[in-house]
Amino acid sequence: MDFKKWFMIGFLAFILIGCQNESRSNATVGLYNKDGDMIGTAKLTETSTGVEVLVNAEGLEPGPHGFHLHEFPVCEGPDFTSAGNHFNPTGKVHGLMNTEGSHVGDMPNLEADASGKIVEAKATLAEATLLDGKNSLMKGEGTSLIIHEAIDDGFSQPAGEAGGRVACGKIQLNDEGEMPTDPMEQKGKKEEE
């Protein structure tokens, strides 16, 4: 009888943990400019090959923009330096073109069209996860996404000479311990703070 009881408790705990992780398998993050206006979204999806990021944005200067994960979920304008450095739990150097391999926070440049829009830009973060683990984007308080004003050259240290930060989005759990699927949930939280 005791074995059956402990088995059921363990089984239920396993199911509950699985449900918690399922609620963190995707999220939509609002991207905000220095004035606090929402200029786009980034949809994050946990896949078998890492975290897929799908970006739609507007109001940017036409051309390439560096795009990185940063270490803190803090997006205080106008310069967003509150987001900290690049998310780098593996201790690697910067740059997708670096021969030693890039760090977790490196992503391909985004390309804004002539009207300043980024439409359906996709990147996969092979070493990242939304679930628990060393490379979790949810580790601690969370992380952030930053769009830079210029192109990331792919190898310069520490940040690819990508210039200032022009947009920021927080990747973090809501008060219920789940990833928000509506970026306006984050906006409301920002206004309350």
TrEMBL record:
Where does the record place the region Disordered?
170-193
Name its GO BP terms in alphabetical order: superoxide metabolic process
Q: Which CDD domains match?
A: Cu-Zn_Superoxide_Dismutase
User: Domain Superoxide dismutase copper/zinc binding: where?
Assistant: 39-171
InterPro entries membership: SOD-like_Cu/Zn_dom_sf, SOD_Cu/Zn_/chaperone, SOD_Cu_Zn_dom
Q: Where is the composition biased (Basic and acidic residues)?
A: 184-193
Source taxon at top rank = Bacteria
Q: What are the recorded GO MF terms, alphabetically? A: copper ion binding
Name used for this protein in its record: Superoxide dismutase, Cu-Zn family
Return the similarity comment: Belongs to the Cu-Zn superoxide dismutase family.
